[in-house]
Specification:
It is a single chain. By secondary structure, this protein is α/β, with parallel strands linked by helices. The chain has a single domain (about 10-265), classed as Protein of unknown function UPF0759 (TIM Barrel, Alpha-Beta Barrel). Helix content is about 30%, strand content about 20%. The protein has helices at about 20-25, 35-40, 55-65, 80, 90-100, 125-135, 155-165, 205-220, 255-265, and strands at about 10-15, 45, 70-75, 110-115, 135-140, 140, 145-150, 170, 170-175, 190-195, 245-250. Helix 8 (about 205-220) links the parallel strand 10 and strand 11. The longest helix has 16 residues, at about 205-220.
Length: about 270
């Protein structure tokens, strides 16, 4: 049986951002057509609006119909789930979110991002129970889950073992503030790059984007880059191919589309 070919998708956070009318969108593009345009210049978008409020099924269906067949959306889970004191109490709220219409994205649904609060420290039982609440499917649609942690107490082998057991990807965050770890715990990779600077036309310097191109290709091939921070040693044998999702998020956000497009061109 032939190996499944992994997909590398590069994107941005959202598509409604006023400064992008100077750095990304042509003057003639109306706001109602921003998603249509953006989805033909990057290969994925992380939907951040769902972090603040639930959307309706008709909205998800409209997003599906506005984008190319190969396009993918990641969805940021609501703050009323991920910012609660006790994550294990999120079952009912999680069902409400997962039943809000995300399945209208159909095959264009990528990973769901669960971003914990900066102040949430690692508690093995709480995290294990929370990840155990994440379902494998919504209806008949398979789900993939990515957990973003932002507290240094998560930099432990125990946490990675829990994430691996649950099949949840640990997000790699390229950021000057939050801890970063590139240990792989799932069948896909999720990275959020947050170091875009306004003074660089492509957000990240060309040399840095070339490094990210190489890392993406290594991940997709089943290998692992050796130049990123991690807790455990990299495996010596290649794993099966992995889908890779890389998003340029915040930093100098006006440069994010240029960064994503340049990385896509390097991969091409």
């Amino acid at each position: 049986m032939p190996k499944q070919q992994a997909q590398i998708r590069i994107g941005i956070g959202g598509w409604n951002y006023e400064p992008w009318h100077k750095t990304f969108y042509p003057a003639e593009i109306a706001q109602s057509r921003e998603l249509e345009y953006a989805s033909r210049h990057v290969t994925a978008i992380e939907i951040n609006g769902t972090f603040y409020r639930l959307q309706k099924p008709a909205v998800f269906a409209k997003w599906h119909d506005s984008t190319p067949e190969s396009f993918r959306f990641s969805i940021k889970a609501p703050r009323f789930i991920v910012q609660r004191k006790d994550l294990t109490s999120a079952g009912t709220a999680m069902e409400r979110f997962l039943g809000s219409g995300i399945t209208e994205l159909k095959s264009k649904l990528g990973p769901i991002l669960w971003q914990l609060a900066d102040t949430k420290a690692f508690d093995a039982r709480e995290i294990d129970d929370f990840l155990g609440l994440l379902p494998a499917t919504a209806g008949t649609l398979p789900l993939r889950h990515a957990l973003e942690v932002r507290h240094a107490s998560f930099l432990t082998r125990e946490f990675l073992d829990i994430a691996s057991k649950r099949g949840v990807a640990v997000v790699y965050e390229d950021d000057a503030t939050h801890p970063a770890l590139c240990d792989l715990t799932s069948s896909f990779v999720y990275a959020r790059l947050r170091r875009c600077v306004a003074s660089c036309a492509t957000g990240y310097p060309l040399a840095a984007l070339k490094k990210w191109s190489l890392r993406a290709q290594l991940w997709a091939s089943g290998k692992e880059p050796a130049d990123l921070p991690r807790v455990t040693a990299a495996r010596k044998t290649a794993a099966p191919p992995r889908d890779v999702f890389i998003y340029f998020i915040n930093g100098a956000k006006e440069r994010a589309p240029a960064a994503a497009q340049k990385l896509i061109s390097l991969l091409d």
